[in-house]
Amino acid sequence: MNFPSKLIEDAVVEISKLPGIGKKSALRLVLHLLKREETQTQLLADALVAMRTKTSYCRKCHNISDDELCQICSSPRREQQIICVVEDTRDVLAIENTAQYKGLYHVLGGIISPLMGVGPNDLNIDSLLKRIEQADENEKVQEVILALSPTMEGDTTAFYLQKKLKAFPVKISTIARGIPIGGDLEYTDEVTLGRSILSRIAYE
Amino acid sequence: MNFPSKLIEDAVVEISKLPGIGKKSALRLVLHLLKREETQTQLLADALVAMRTKTSYCRKCHNISDDELCQICSSPRREQQIICVVEDTRDVLAIENTAQYKGLYHVLGGIISPLMGVGPNDLNIDSLLKRIEQADENEKVQEVILALSPTMEGDTTAFYLQKKLKAFPVKISTIARGIPIGGDLEYTDEVTLGRSILSRIAYE
């Protein structure tokens, strides 16, 4: 593309570094901003910089938080004995939206991926083990739920965590894998269907 | 969505004001930026503000330009006698990409749309008429091509321009409407097909 202006080109190049936005979409966004008030662009830029430079993380669960302790960790209504281990903040939001979970979280900040150069030491794993080890008597962790994506990296991370967690007297579980609610048996992939037969649930 | 942080929420709200980006995509972009270097966000924000505050327009054709006169208007290799009237910069880029047009442009900066409150006075129409009127002898405009989208607003704008341009001794034309190259006759909508029959081209 032959941009009519260096400024436009710079903006397009920076925007198209974002995932899922190509050069054409980036140009559309730039022309949209040019038509709007100057303050809108300023607000957007300020919000981005503030978000990137000032966002802090909960010292307990490593979820994004404006305070030292996040709303979930500091809530007296959450069950302190269960920790759900997730990859990132989006997973916390997704699980919170179900309104089915009342325990605490632990955000790893990624998953083990040798291809991407992410090892166990790059993740918040040590702090998880410390959290279980150093818990007060009334906050003793009884169960750790591994809620990681059912991918190779997710499974590797879950396997690593399982090994590490065996040293503690906690129940370790994982979220159920199977056919999605409303899913069609016929169109489910073989791996999922195979697993759902192996881990079948007995009627009580 | 229950955001874990006001900063994140602000950034998501500002990003999702952009066309075609919802709150979920905005959150994905925010978390992506959080994982990247701080400089990337800073560069993006700076590029956006610079683009919005410093972009200027060619004084002749109103296309985006870093200089007072854009590259196309100042090029001696372009035909000065033909002006192609378009809605915005994207259309200029699209036509330039075809490499089929060697004349000049005139960017209206929008199209007449009573619903959106855009009237003829909000567009660069007066300057187009002045351009034709005040042209030097060797730059006399001979043809004005109306290259507007074949929508109701585009047709309204074209109709308005036609009326205004009749006062000048210039040829007025519009880009051909018809079946797209490679398009399938069977699947072409009735309006396009009907128009393509009415404005059939005789073999020479």
TrEMBL record, chains A, B:
Zn-finger segments (C4-type) = 58-73
**From which domain of life does this come?**
Bacteria
- Where would one find coiled-coil regions in this protein? none
Q: Where do the TM regions start and end?
A: none
Q: Which residues form the Toprim domain?
A: 81-180
Sorted keywords for this record are: DNA damage, DNA recombination, DNA repair, Metal-binding, Zinc, Zinc-finger
Which family does the UniProt entry place this protein in? Belongs to the RecR family.
Q: What does this protein do?
A: May play a role in DNA repair. It seems to be involved in an RecBC-independent recombinational process of DNA repair. It may act with RecF and RecO.
NCBIfam families given for it?
Answer: recR
Instruction: List the protein's name.
Output: Recombination protein RecR
Source species of the chain: Emticicia soli
Q: Which gene encodes it?
A: recR
